[in-house]
Amino acid sequence: MYWDSKIETMEREELERLQYRLLKTLVYRLYSFSAFYHRRMEEAKVHPDDVKTLSDVTKLPFMFKRDLRDNYPDKLFMATQEDLVRYHVSSGTTGKPTVVGYTANDLEEWTVSLARALTSCGLGTKDVIQVSYGYGLFTGGLGLHYGAERIGATVIPTSVGGTERQIELMQDLGATAICCTPSYLLHMGEAAEKMGVSIKKDTKLKVGILGAEPWTAEMRTRIQDWLGIKAYDIYGTSELSGPLFTECTEQNGIHIWGDFAYTEIVDPKTGEHVGDGEKGELTMTILKKEALPIVRYRIGDITGMEHEVCACGRTHPRITRITGRVDDMLIIRGINVFPSQIEHTLMGIPEVGQHFQIVVDRKHELDALLVRVEVKPEAFSDKITDLMKIKEMVAHRLGAALTVNVDVELAEPGSLPRFEGKAKRVIDRRKM
Amino acid sequence: MEHERYFIKQISVFSENRPGRLAAIAKAMEEDGINIFAFSIAEADGFGVVRALVNHPDKAYRKLTGLGFVVSFTDVIGVKMRDEPGGLYEVARILGEAGINIEYSYAYSGKEAAVLILRVDNIRSAIEKILAHGGSLMEAAAFR
Known about the structure:
The complex is a heterodimer.
Chain A: H1 5-8, H2 12-33, H3 35-43, H4 65-70, E1 84-89, E2 99-103, H5 104-120, E3 128-131, H6 139-150, E4 154-156, H7 163-172, E5 177-180, H8 182-194, H9 199-202, E6 207-211, H10 217-227, E7 230-237, E8 242-246, E9 254-255, E10 261-266, E11 280-286, E12 297-303, E13 305-306, E14 318-319, E15 324-325, E16 330-332, E17 335-337, H11 339-347, E18 352-363, E19 366-375, H12 384-402, E20 406-411, E21 426-428
Parallel strand pairs in A: 3-4, 3-5, 5-6, 6-7, 18-21, 19-20
Antiparallel strand pairs in A: 1-2, 7-8, 9-14, 10-11, 11-12, 12-15, 13-14, 16-17, 18-19
Helix pairs in contact in A: 2-3, 5-6, 7-8, 8-10, 11-12
Chain B: E1 8-16, H1 21-31, E2 36-43, E3 47-54, H2 57-66, E4 71-81, H3 87-97, E5 102-109, E6 114-120, H4 123-132, E7 136-137
Antiparallel strand pairs in B: 1-3, 1-4, 2-3, 4-6, 4-7, 5-6
């Protein structure tokens, strides 16, 4: 099922011609009307006439998060207030918030992108979609709301929180799909069990559209098996407009609509392109954005790209699961550590639960990494030696995966913090 | 021989090693009118296991798991000792000579005798050896 089969299955060459035309138009527009980007291009000694092919995109200068912050709130906007129909403000988990403005066309493009994405997850008019992303300044709630309405589904705009009520409504209104963070869905699953409700047996839920935080393939398996649903990864950030792209039913990478965005994966240090399938920093150019131009924007998410045509028939390139953030990276005794590596390792250890907390400290001038995990009730032994063995085994497995020494602390089930929005699992106590 | 009549159901509770955890367990027992005969705390790095003999183990299990604690049952034996010098030696010698290993142990001084609670690697053989040497064991019926 396609939302727009002509575009979604367009021959690669034709798609690239379309991307080139859109890029060329964008560059002329920016050079003529954006003081910021005009100056950037002057500094980089590049003129719109220098963009003669799609690969000439590499001549253009990068944009960074700091460019948005430095131009707070609206100095980068290319639309006047009369043309703006909405603002969103980013959650600011990595610093000062940034403001994104939208024209009516920007909202339309965003909605269409999600209509294609949700259709690719097998959703349509017969579905009841519970939107449990936050509504408001955060883009998740409203973005999916309009995307879901566009495909003719029935929306339950629950937003986040009030978990027991969410579970009641899921049952009573027969929700078939839910959109939320993976950690919130796990939290809901646990809360439902406490209420005596099995999401697998007592609800009609069959699809989860999950994202807004990094998660792993193991977490997907666990969610799918436990809750009896298909879990699809969704991607987007407020700067790009909001959540925009998802996996299709093949669950093999997130389709990035090429007529919407031009994607590059670059080495975070050098800015050079990495090869197909290799990991690097996701960099995007949004080809048709009106209010806030996004050109070669270094998003900071670590992923890889796949150009092969998908088994679903869609020709647009795919990005692989986000495995971390350039700026989430912890440096422990000089070694790069991503929280996602810790999650990945813990998922393979049945004796511990899926929740964890990372505490980084400095002891005797050395970085110390402590990972707190919850013991699964099934793994509990009355004998201290058995528990010490679990603790040592977890420490050993983490140490091997991260190539740094890890201390492990066993915690009581349910005692580590749960997150309803973005998970904040790292406590860094180091004083530099 | 009916060994099971001497299998005492001990409850073991996983606990993080931080202030207030024992109080939380004890409060739960108090609320449900459960009496604790004996208990011990085994501590390791950052966590511990609270082991206890109570008058209603099943009720205690339900109460504690309901509060989110991780609880398990373990079969232990309670050996009555003479409450005078040499009492512990008598029991320990029987087990040692029989090659039975004590995994952990704790004791309480009851109304009629001092009682040594033992988790051993071979519970059936321990029961046989102690009874064969004229020792006496607590019956499980006292703890349910």
